[in-house]
Write a structure and sequence with these properties.
Elements lengths: L1 H23 L21 E17 L6 E18 L2 E19 L3 E17 L4 E18 L4 E20 L4 E17 L4 E17 L1
Antiparallel strand pairs: 1-2, 1-8, 2-3, 3-4, 4-5, 5-6, 6-7, 7-8
């Protein structure tokens, strides 16, 4: 019996010594990798406000004539809006107000027209390619048009509120907050009756402008 007990104690000792030796061996596991930071994906959703500047050119239409003269000049102002991104599509609403120096002079000595400000309220629909977004836009336009007919000493200064604007553009998010872009708009401010009769004067023009916005 004693022999069996001694043999059992010896066996337990060998097992314990082997376990202790195994515990002292170096681990075969590699070093634990540090977690990798993944910045959140950019989103176009949010309010924005910004400024723009560019060039406009167009036509003066009067008394049934297709084109009495041309007008061109500087435009510049500001925009405010909101975008909402759904998957790759972006929808939004934007309002802008522009100072302008769109003047026709006195074309053919008949009619002189000048637009000194205009504005639009437009819907926008775009497709996001990460930080790039081409878009189309359209909506309501309004503005102030000064008209003169030198031959009869007539002049008037009227607001046009029944116009429209359509166009498109491309924007790029330089950072998560700074967005740069270019935009084209065709603006038609509609016609107004002059001299209390059937004589109408209308203004339509194109605008190309650079934009810079801050997204909140």
């Amino acid at each position: 019996m004693k022999k069996y007990l001694l043999a059992s104690v010896a066996a337990l000792g060998l097992v314990a010594a082997g376990a202790a030796s195994a515990a002292d061996l170096p681990s075969r596991k590699g070093p634990i990798a540090a977690p990798v930071y993944m910045p959140p994906a950019f989103t176009w959703t949010g309010f924005y406000v910004g400024a723009n500047a560019g060039y406009g050119w167009g036509n003066v239409n009067a008394g049934g004539f297709a084109n009495v003269g041309d007008l061109d000049g500087f435009v510049g102002g500001g925009q405010i809006g909101y975008n909402y991104q759904m998957g790759q599509f972006v929808v939004g609403l934007e309002a802008d107000l522009q100072a302008a120096d769109l003047s026709s002079g006195n074309n053919l000595g008949l009619v002189g027209v000048k637009t000194d400000y205009f504005g639009t309220v437009r819907a926008r629909v775009g497709v996001a390619f990460d930080r790039f977004m081409p878009y189309i836009t359209g909506g309501w336009a309004y503005g102030n048009v000064k008209t003169s007919i030198p031959a009869i000493g007539f002049s008037t200064d009227r607001s046009h509120t029944g116009g429209f604007a359509v166009g498109g553009g491309l924007e790029y998010a330089v950072t998560n907050n700074i967005i740069a872009g270019v935009e084209y708009l065709y603006v038609d401010l509609g016609e107004k009756n002059l001299l209390g009769g059937g004589t109408k004067v209308g203004t339509d023009f194109s605008v190309v402008r650079a934009r810079l916005s801050y997204k909140f």
